[in-house]
Specification:
By secondary structure, the protein is mostly helical. The protein has helices at about 15-30, 50-65, 70-90, 95-115, 120-130, 140-165, 180-200, 205-215, 220-240, 250-275, 285-315, 315-325, 325-330, 335-350, 360-385, 390-400. The longest helix is centred in the last third of the chain and has 30 residues, at about 285-315. InterPro entries: Bact_Transport_Assoc, DUF418. This is DUF418 domain-containing protein.
Length: about 425
């Protein structure tokens, strides 16, 4: 049987709403690094910010950063599970179809990472999609356990290491070896290269720097892949268990997510920022590792709480009306994600408006909210005429081997 896009009645609107919400959170998280070197990721808050901007950055760090890529990743795992279930019902060769889908996402991710913005996450998703196939036939509960283990065990190991370093610190000794000096000098030079290329260089200068950043961070991408795969599997478990499509039948689970997981995650996040908000890995690695590992554990708990509260709100008339407005943006999440990067780089980079380092944090965040509001309106208008976002349409064409009808008058929807 030939594979076809999903019929209109088969869409789960709550997933589109959650994608829209995740899109806003990712924008609030990413905007900082449209005007700051990506090599500063993992360094914590910028201590030079004025008080108001520092307070806003603190709020983003505690409540947003790390939480919404996890929400997006949970949704990616849910999408995998939904496609798998539909393929089984239709008798479709799912593995071949999904590998084509992953290859298409990889191409889009490489274009994004190299030609638009280096902070891409799509390449990670594409790689994870291939590994997900190994878990296709696992029972939902087993997928959930694997997911929790792949994310939680490394995070707990890091926390244990940090605790041991914290309780029994070794005397700090600077490494004066030639190799370490060369490494630090290279890192400093690469960071300075980023600043020059992005703040005042041409588009091609930025492409070259993005390429070097991509290669330099391949090892970190593979490490991050383990955490991402764990979240994908938890998302697959949530969908296959029915907790997303029929939350009323899983009241106990959702109460745990709302009233246990979310407060526990927030407590861990507050513990993290009480340890450190600026990470000095060279001279105080124990403090930095402790703060980072606490936040690693906090983020999925808070994300799951956000997800559950959103589903609860969607069960009310007011919540369904207000949050339902996000669904069109969620249906076009891939297009809107890329558009955020295009707008962000054109605003801040030298080959655009050149506002690198000149916009206060408060205006950056307000700009994201305004852009997202525009995306919500534009997505609704677009989908009143067309069935897919433009990038979604190309992705589906690559996946299914033919261009699907684009006009909204067609009987099928994505």
């Amino acid at each position: 049987m030939a594979a076809v896009p999903v019929a209109a009645g088969e869409r789960v609107v709550s997933l589109d709403v959650l994608r829209g919400l995740a899109l806003l959170g990712i924008g609030l998280m990413n905007v900082e690094y449209f005007s700051r070197p990506l090599r500063d990721m993992g360094q914590g808050l910028d201590p030079s910010l004025p008080p108001v901007d520092h307070a806003l950055a603190w709020l983003v760090y505690v409540f947003v950063q790390g939480k919404f890529w996890i929400l997006f990743s949970l949704l990616f795992g849910m999408g995998f599970a939904a496609l798998d279930e539909r393929a089984r019902v239709a008798g479709i060769d799912f593995s071949t179809l999904y590998l084509r889908r992953a290859a298409g996402l990889m191409l889009i991710g490489l274009v994004h990472a190299l030609l638009i913005w280096a902070g891409d996450i799509l390449v990670t998703y594409a790689l994870g999609a291939v590994v997900l196939l190994w878990f296709r036939d696992a029972e939902p509960a087993r997928q959930g356990r694997w997911g929790a283990a792949l994310y939680g065990v490394p995070a707990l190991v890091l926390l244990l290491m940090a605790g041991m370093m914290w309780v029994s610190p070794e005397p700090t000794q600077a490494d004066h070896s030639a190799s370490e000096a060369a490494r630090l000098a290279l890192e400093k030079a690469r960071r300075a290269e980023e600043v020059v290329a992005y703040s005042s260089g041409s588009w091609w200068d930025a492409v070259l720097v993005r390429g070097r950043f991509f290669i330099d961070n391949l090892d970190e991408t593979l490490v991050f892949e383990v955490f991402a795969l764990g979240i994908f599997l938890m998302g697959a478990w949530l969908l296959r268990s029915g907790a997303i499509t029929d939350p009323a039948a899983h009241l106990r689970l959702h109460r745990v997510l709302r009233f246990v997981a979310l407060p526990a995650g927030l407590g861990l996040a507050l513990a993290s920022v009480s340890v450190a908000t600026r990470f000095d890995w060279e001279t105080d690695g124990a403090r930095a590792l402790l703060a980072m590992s606490l936040m690693l554990l906090a983020s999925p708990l808070m994300s799951l709480g956000y997800l559950s509260w959103t589903l609860r709100a969607l069960q009310t008339r007011t919540g369904a009306r207000m949050l339902g407005a996000l669904a069109p943006a969620g249906r076009m999440a891939l297009t809107n994600y890329l558009l955020q990067s295009i707008v962000g780089t054109l605003v801040f980079y030298g080959y655009g408006l050149g506002l690198w380092g000149r916009v206060p944090r408060r205006w950056e965040l307000l700009g994201v909210v305004v852009l997202f509001a525009m995306q919500v309106v534009a997505s609704r208008l677009w989908l009143s005429h067309f069935r897919f976002g433009p990038v979604e349409w190309l992705w589906r064409a690559f996946t299914y081997g033919r261009f699907p009808p684009m006009r909204a008058t067609s009987a099928l929807t994505p």
